[in-house]
Amino acid sequence: MSNAQRSSDVVEIHSERCLSFALCGLGSLAAGWLLLHYTDLFIGLGWVLVIGGFGALCFALFCAMQARKVTGVGFTCPYCSTGNRLTAVPDDDFSCNSCHRLIPVGEGSILEVFQVRCGFCNHLNYYNAKSEGLICEECDREIPISTESGEKSAKLFRTYTQHDDDKQYELVLVSYGHKTEEVIGCLQHMLALNRNQVKDMLGELPATLLTGITRKKAEMLTAQLATHEAAAEFHPVA
Q: Beta-strand (E) ranges in 77-202?
């Protein structure tokens, strides 16, 4: 998501800043008051702490006001019909807050999503006009998708292809760049975790994201992370 963020995430960021600066401000005021009232040696330091404390409380108040000002644009998930609220009209795909599927976006609007069942396991899968291929969510077999007449409409081939590589792989996140919020959103969708769990994972790299997946799925997820400047590696499971 390049130009829009989830409204709840923005509110959470401002709220965290508000709480942090409020606690620091109160602590600084308390320390300054003690120095001013119980010692004559550190009066200057006491006034510095008092002024700094008031400044921190003012910034905390500003963060609280910013959180209250957050507005959003509502979008309905085509998979689960859950409402999602973003800070602006998105120009790229974003994950649903409920089902965590990637909602396709084209020219500022939600694209229509189609259903298809896997020819091997009969599991229901989804695709849209931007899809160039599918991997079954249940059995990890490839469901080829093609386009005709240069149009973006997708169609299921009559035959299904088998994987050439039957090994199981694990996907490991090695690093991430400057697009931290995009990486968090991507991992929330990929792993069905909440924001705090993902943030804890980013603080303990390298981190194993998934294990026991196929090579094609590992390659697809690695490429997806790379679009958000995050580096991942996949290795065969021993």
A: 83-86, 94-95, 102-103, 105-106, 109-110, 113-117, 124-128, 133-135, 142-147, 154-156, 169-176
State the Cα–Cα distance between residues 55 and 73, nearest whole angstrom.
33
Does the global pTM surpass 0.85? no
Structure tokens at 93: 């795909």
SS3 94: strand
pLDDT at 127: 85
Q: How far apart are CA 133 and CA 126, in angstroms?
A: 11
Which string of b and e fits 205-223 if b means at least 16 CB within 10 Å? eebebbeebbbbbbeebbe
| Cα 171 to Cα 218: distance, rounded to the nearest angstrom | 6
How big is the CA angle at 126 (ends 123 and 130), to the nearest 5 degrees?
150
